[in-house]
């Protein structure tokens, strides 16, 4: 996400029983028994199909947060600068002990950013309020003001320019879509940033088994802050990919992606101009390489189709989850958001 709020400093460590060991903050107030079960163990005591489903859904959630947190290590950097800091491309960028920049130093090591914060807001809205956009609008407002107090936040660190503009538009809380449309039209219908696609996978996690509901929810939640059809197309494509992978994990990958491409274009219809339909197919095409994407291009690092393409790159990757993320964030640019969109990668290896 392109950040505009530089006044906060992430999840605070004040008033906690933390000690610093090496470069990691350890909460010493937590204790565990040797035989203590994981809170998620109960979910894996059913049949194999149920276990696989839960594994995929949790993998998507954890992948979101991990990709976001790992990507923060190189966010806003040029690819050449990343290579200077980590010259051995065969080695993983260390996490959470990466070299902090002035930007990433605003967060505690290992923390995720606004990308996953907003994903959590969306998950809450979908699971507690069935996708009420006014509820989501209010949650955004509270998060901007306070962050997640239970995580010792004191504001929505990393708030993007577009979201800030929309939330401050008159009438946002009464009619979020109208306010979002007005904010978009004030840019000459040019703004298509990545702040919706970074959080949209929550719609697929909740509604993977109801494609129509999932698409409707993805569109509505996207348009709450990002009205451009390119942003909508990005969200629909990501959610369709996740849903179809969960439903049919053994399907041929390129056939599945082709289905996603065509259904996305059909869903958008004439709202997506011909030039952007071609762009969409180019960015999601099988032949796209990381070099092609130029993810560190200063002028367009936050373009929604670049983030979408990063996710599809990960989807096609045959390397491990860690290796794929490492390859991606070594490109610099809006690396946390690109990493978050990579949460559904490695379809072939089933490593979500």
From TrEMBL:
> Does the keyword section mention NADP?
no
Which species is listed as the source? Rotaria sordida
Needed cofactors, names only, are: Mg(2+)
Q: Name one Pfam family in it.
A: ADP_ribosyl_GH
Q: Which domain of life is it from?
A: Eukaryota
Please state what the protein is called: ADP-ribosylglycohydrolase
| Record bears the keyword ATP-binding | no
The GO terms this record gives for MF are:
metal ion binding
Q: Cite the entry's keywords alphabetically.
A: Magnesium, Metal-binding
Q: How is the cofactor bound?
A: Binds 2 magnesium ions per subunit.
Note the InterPro entries from the entry.
ADP-ribosylglycohydrolase, Ribosyl_crysJ1, Ribosyl_crysJ1_sf
- Which positions does UniProt annotate for Mg(2+) binding? 113-115, 334, 336-337
